[in-house]
């Protein structure tokens, strides 16, 4: 927020070009007699009469206002294979390439430094920028309110809107949920409020699995049905961890290799619990501190069972209501062990078949265990530690 006089050489800094342009070039439409001094009052939109003292609100408005101005008067262009429509021909073309062309019909854009290929040139540019750009030549866009940083200005703007903007633009009409992302609201309604028969399911062609969203089905197919020789593993630079999905690698990096002084902890107001993840804090509060009607229950649509956590409900459905032929078994590659839960298989493989066992040692006695949960239980039962 800026409301005071500033000398243009003294001080204003930002990683966002939209703010630089607005602050330095247009100078809030004020033309002072002395070009050295600028009385900054409010952020004003160039396309309408909107003004605000708040940078984040200004960013949000500018984006939508410009889009509305550009699209005004344009005709809708409809896809001839589905319900998708857009006012921009390049967006429609990108949709058709991504969703409807067969692999042998696509003009692939290949990376000249690795095996990556993309259906659209812009995705290849992003890939090169993210994976092959030298660190010293990388321009980072950093959030001024938390440790978040990104190589793309768009992602920083999106981060500001979804994370730090207090007022929520999109609100759920069935509960108190609010967000500044329309796609987040759509996901929320699908996962929280739609009944089984109202959901447009995306079904896997290779097994009984079905997903509530198309990205969910894509994740399943890339994780479960890709042959080992075709898997593109995402490997950690700091340890032996590898995964098939980039989001899992990012989560691993954040959980295991973040610098302590860069971590923003989410702390519980009612107990010493703290976590690196906002959703984990919400889950903790819902599980341990809410009572009665305050609790968000996840209810089974086949019986009276209810749970405070979604994955607990999912485990219940898998264990109780799935037919034998519909169960997705996770089979061990080294023995006959199989389980309904991928987490159990990972624990089994790590405990029985891994040559790199990580022992968890008690600092009060000689006890050791392969499980962090086992160490916590030991400390609590044997030493009275919480």
- Biggest beta sheet summary: 2 strands, antiparallel
Shape: globular
Helix-and-strand structural type: alpha+beta
Rounded mean pLDDT score: 76
E-strand count? 24
Rounded to the nearest angstrom, the distance between the terminal CA atoms is 44 Å
Which strand order spans the largest sheet, edge to edge or round the barrel? 1-2
Organism: Zophobas morio
InterPro entries: Zinc_finger/UBP_domain, Znf_C2H2_sf, Znf_C2H2_type
Domain C2H2-type: 170-198, 202-230, 298-326, 330-358, 360-386
GO biological process, one term: positive regulation of transcription by RNA polymerase II
Question: Could you give a quick summary of the protein structure above?
Answer:
This is C2H2-type domain-containing protein. 37% of the residues lie in helices and 13% in strands.
């Amino acid at each position: 927020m800026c409301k005071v006089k500033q000398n243009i050489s003294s001080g204003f800094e930002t990683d966002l070009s939209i703010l630089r342009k607005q602050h330095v070039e247009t100078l809030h439409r004020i033309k002072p007699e002395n070009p050295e001094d600028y009385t900054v009052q409010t952020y004003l939109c160039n396309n309408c009469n909107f003004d605000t003292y708040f940078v984040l609100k200004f960013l949000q408005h500018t984006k939508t206002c410009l889009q509305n101005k550009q699209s005004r008067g344009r005709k809708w262009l409809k896809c001839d294979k589905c319900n998708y429509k857009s006012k921009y021909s390049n967006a429609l073309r990108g949709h058709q390439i991504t969703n409807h062309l067969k692999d042998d019909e696509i003009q692939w854009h290949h990376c000249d430094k690795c095996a990556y290929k993309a259906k659209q040139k812009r995705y290849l540019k992003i890939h090169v920028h993210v994976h092959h750009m030298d660190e010293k030549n990388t321009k980072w866009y950093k959030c001024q309110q938390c440790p978040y940083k990104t190589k793309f200005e768009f992602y920083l703007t999106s981060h500001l809107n979804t994370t730090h903007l207090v007022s929520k633009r999109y609100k759920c009409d069935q509960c108190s949920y609010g967000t500044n992302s329309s796609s987040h609201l759509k996901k929320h309604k699908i996962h929280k409020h739609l009944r089984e028969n109202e959901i447009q399911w995306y079904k896997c062609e290779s097994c009984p699995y079905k997903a509530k969203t198309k990205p969910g089905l894509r994740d399943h197919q890339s994780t479960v049905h890709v042959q080992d020789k075709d898997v593109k593993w995402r490997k950690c630079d700091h340890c032996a961890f590898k995964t098939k999905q980039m989001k899992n690698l990012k989560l691993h990096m954040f959980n295991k290799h973040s610098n302590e002084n860069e971590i923003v902890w989410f702390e519980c107001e009612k107990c010493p619990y703290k976590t690196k993840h906002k959703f984990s804090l919400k889950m903790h509060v819902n599980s341990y501190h809410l009572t009665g009607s305050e609790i968000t229950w996840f209810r089974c649509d086949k019986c009276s069972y209810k749970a405070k956590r979604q994955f607990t409900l999912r485990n219940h459905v898998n264990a109780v209501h799935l037919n034998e032929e519909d169960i997705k078994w996770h089979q061990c590659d080294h023995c006959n062990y199989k389980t309904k839960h991928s987490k159990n298989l990972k624990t089994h493989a790590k405990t029985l078949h891994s040559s790199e066992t990580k022992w968890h040692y008690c600092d009060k006695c000689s006890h050791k265990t392969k499980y962090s949960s086992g160490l916590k239980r030991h400390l609590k039962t044997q030493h009275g530690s919480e």
